[in-house]
UniProtKB/TrEMBL annotation:
This is Uncharacterized protein. It comes from Blastochloris sulfoviridis.
Amino acid sequence: MAEPDNLVLSLLREMRGDMSSMRAEMAAGFKSVESGIADLEKRIDSVKQAAFGESVLGRYAAAEVEDRLAEIERRLAALETRT
């Protein structure tokens, strides 16, 4: 007597096949999954460094503007006291 098909087992087998094909596609795209992860980590680190660099440059630019404004305010105060 043939055992009836179990829908859950059929779906799990199909999912297993899909996962295997995904692994094969990933392996084709990357030399290995580990090297692919390492490559992604490098890319994330470079984005973090770029963002941090822009942040530091922004701080320097803001400090320069603050210095210029302080100098202008000092000169304006000096002019106001003359009159």
